[in-house]
Design goal:
The protein has about 250 residues and is an alpha/beta fold. It has a single domain, classed as Acetylglutamate kinase-like (Carbamate kinase), CATH 3.40.1160.10. Helix content is about 35%, strand content about 20%.
């Protein structure tokens, strides 16, 4: 039996959208989907890789979009931050059910359910082998959870961001949901992704990763083996980096 290859990374940040928790539901969370994600994270932890997670809130906040029309943008953003705390607690429960010691660190004060975000505390938890879930984005309106993922990854010195997508294999030159002829892009630079307006992350997050030479692996969360393959060094999905894109 061939032993598993040595992990390529010691510390990663996994970016999950809120929709990743929905499964086939229209909104809310699918318990089976959350447990499936927890199993994948537990498998990577078993290989000694330190993992931090940033989770979005599209599964909850999208249900409020109609009510949010005409709402002050900052108020709406704070509502979204609170929704990410709900998702973080859901994920924490599933991870602990999978045997993982987990801590939720929130950028806004929710001391009854989460620790405040303190960079050194987050790094200490990771060093102790705990899975760290960052909630409430950056704690500021007008910034997405993509930007929170880029910021936290840099703060904790993660070696890569793993950007989970739902139902798509990575980055395409157009939206494959509306353009069946869209071509898959296996590798691209941060700068080119920004200039072409490709939906990898928002432009603020991409610029932050570009300026700090932080690679992003965009992959399909639907395949349970993909995180493990990326950690093992296999080419999975799309690599966004400052290197020369593949021909």
């Amino acid at each position: 039996m061939t032993p598993d290859p040595e992990p390529k990374f010691n510390r990663i940040l996994l970016k999950l959208s809120g929709e990743a928790l929905m499964g086939d539901l229209d909104h809310g969370t699918d318990a089976n989907e959350v447990q499936r994600i927890a199993r994948q994270v537990a498998a990577i932890r078993a290989r000694g890789v330190e993992i931090a997670i940033v989770v979005g809130a599209g599964n909850i906040y999208r249900g409020l979009e109609a009510a949010a029309e005409g709402m002050d943008r900052a108020t709406g953003d704070y509502m979204g931050m609170l929704a990410t705390v709900l998702n973080a607690l859901t994920l924490q429960d599933a991870l602990e059910g999978a045997g993982q010691h987990t801590r939720v660190l929130s950028a806004i004060e929710t001391k009854e359910v989460a620790e405040p975000y303190i960079r050194r505390r987050a790094m200490r938890h990771l060093e102790k082998g705990r899975v760290v879930i960052f909630a409430a984005g950056t704690g500021n309106p007008f910034f997405t959870t993509d930007t929170a993922a880029a910021l936290r990854a840099l703060e904790i010195r993660a070696e890569a961001i793993l950007m989970a997508k739902n139902g798509v294999e990575g980055v395409y030159d157009a939206d494959p949901a509306t353009h069946p002829e869209a071509k898959f892009i296996p590798e691209i630079t941060h700068r080119e992704a920004i200039e072409r307006g490709l939906k990898v992350m928002d432009s603020t997050a991409l610029s932050l990763c570009m300026d700090n030479d932080l690679p992003i692996y965009v992959f399909n969360m639907g395949d349970e083996g993909n995180i493990d393959r990326i950690v093992a060094g296999e080419q999975v999905g799309t690599l966004v980096s400052n290197g020369s894109p593949a021909a």
